[in-house]
Design brief:
Layout lengths: L2 E2 L2 E4 L3 H10 L5 E4 L16 E2 L6 H15 L11 E3 L2 E5 L4 H11 L6 E3 L1 H7 L9 E5 L3 E3 L1 H14 L3 E3 L4 E7 L2 E6 L4 E4 L1 E4 L5 H8 L7 E10 L12 E4 L5 E5 L2 E5 L4 E2 L9 H14 L9 E9 L6 E4 L6 E5 L9 H13 L10 H4 L7
Parallel strand pairs: 1-13, 2-3, 2-14, 3-10, 6-16, 14-22
Antiparallel strand pairs: 4-9, 5-9, 6-8, 7-8, 11-12, 12-13, 15-18, 15-19, 15-20, 16-17, 17-18, 21-22
Helix pairs in contact: 1-5, 1-8, 2-8
Bound molecules: flavin-adenine dinucleotide (FAD).
The site of flavin-adenine dinucleotide (FAD) has 41 residues, from helix 1, strand 15 and strand 20.
């Protein structure tokens, strides 16, 4: 006999698990994850930061709404911290000053920002070259722990009677009467009236599988390398440091440094692998902006950031298919916005009041791509 649930969630990344955990106290929820482990794709390959230099006002509003979750995690998360404070420094050379002023104005609506002169910048991050003259600092950034987040959401899901199946790749989907019927590659069948499509880079592929119109998601590859800091560097004191333009960020990482050239290489959905060119670019930009010599790359990884055409996430029921719910397009901010996004997803699935002030349903609804 086929299994049933009230809500089936496709995808055991941060989006799927956080939404499943939020819905599970009110409905029978099952998460289907194709890989053998949760968080194997984007959610396990990020830069793990919460900061306001990411995205635009909508992403910042979702981040702000998510903040209380990280500052005082609910039950089930209290045993492991979800992150630790890390100052976020956005820095600029002389010719980048106007861009820094503009970003300062944008971010100041969401976070307490300190303006730094050259001395302040170098006191905070002695690795930057002397031509770095200006900075803004958010002393309240968070270096997130995605593992603790994923495990916490999975625990909450199970604690509410929900189920998580790994190694369960959805291969077939069809609407039969009032339910979606899903079949995994292994041949298991599960049905539910509502399917949440939280398949990350594969979300459009899931829509096609279901005969639902895709929203035009574009996965983009991003690369990170790690390498040694100069001897004597106070790694614990370093901030997450980002150029005001999308050129480079770096931060301490497990006794070394990591750096990202902020590459956005269009990709098909896949197990993203770092490319030699972007790794070299990360090292080159690190040497251009800082006094660090990247003698040897210690480790490297790449992941996909998936964007809808307007670069805003899509959350809500598909206008063209009953019971098909989109939770996709989190781009480069899926970890830091997951508390607000999952609360929104749960409210729309369950039909409860809109939970996030400062963000409107129309801005996030997938219906915007069908007008
Ligand atoms: C280099 C890099 C840096 C980043 N930095 C940050 C940051 O600092 N802060 C931040 O907030 N965000 C950051 N992000 C973005 C963040 O990682 C993503 O927005 C987030 O992880 C997306 O989560 P997701 O659950 O949608 O996708 P995923 O984690 O990819 O999960 C989707 C899941 O769906 C599963 N799936 C797909 N098809 C099927 C199927 N047919 N059946 C079953 N399962 C299926 C996949 O196996 C996958 O596990 C970064 C991303 C990258 C790559």
């Amino acid at each position: 006999m086929a299994d049933t649930a009230d809500v089936l969630v496709i995808g055991g990344g941060i989006a799927g698990l956080s939404a499943a955990a939020a819905i599970a106290p009110h409905a029978r929820v099952m998460v289907l994850e194709g890989e053998a482990q949760i968080g194997f794709h984007s959610s396990g390959r990020s830069a793990t930061m919460l900061h306001y230099a990411l995205g635009d006002a909508l992403i910042r509003a979702l981040t702000l709404a998510s903040r209380p979750f990280f500052d005082s995690p609910p039950d089930g998360f209290s045993d492991v911290p979800l992150g630790r404070r890390m100052t976020v420094l956005i820095h600029a050379r002389e010719e980048e000053r106007a861009a820094l002023d503009a970003l300062d104005a944008d971010i100041s609506r969401f976070a307490a920002i300190d303006r730094l002169d050259a001395a302040g910048v170098h006191a905070l991050c002695p690795l930057l070259k002397p031509d770095t003259l200006y900075g803004i600092a958010d002393r309240n950034g968070i270096r997130l722990d995605p593992h603790a987040m994923l495990q916490g959401f999975a625990r909450r899901l199970r604690g509410s009677g929900g189920e998580l199946r790994t190694g369960a790749r959805v291969a077939k989907m069809e609407r039969r009467g009032a339910s979606w019927s899903l079949t995994t590659e292994a041949g298991d069948s599960i049905s539910a009236p509502v399917v949440v499509n939280a398949a990350g880079a594969w979300a459009d592929a899931i829509a096609r599988l279901a005969g639902v119109r895709p929203i035009g998601l574009q996965p983009k590859r991003r690369t990170i390398i790690t390498f040694d800091a100069p001897p004597g560097t106070d790694l614990d004191g370093l901030p997450f440091a980002k150029t005001v333009g999308d050129e480079l960020y770096f931060a301490p990482e497990s006794g070394r440094l990591f750096a990202c050239p902020m590459d956005e290489v269009p990709s098909d959905p896949c197990d993203a692998q770092p490319d030699e060119y972007e790794m070299a670019l990360a090292a080159q930009r690190m040497e251009e902006r800082t006094i660090v010599k990247v003698e040897r790359i210690h480790s490297r990884w790449a992941g996909l950031r998936s964007f809808a055409p307007d670069k805003h996430p899509a959350v809500g029921f598909a206008p063209d298919a009953e019971g098909f719910f989109w939770l996709a397009g989190q781009g480069g901010a899926g970890l830091q916005t997951s508390p607000a996004m999952s609360a929104i997803a749960a409210s729309l699935v369950l039909g409860t009041p809109w939970p996030v002030a400062g963000v409107r349903e129309e801005e996030l609804s997938p219906a915007r791509f069908f007008r």
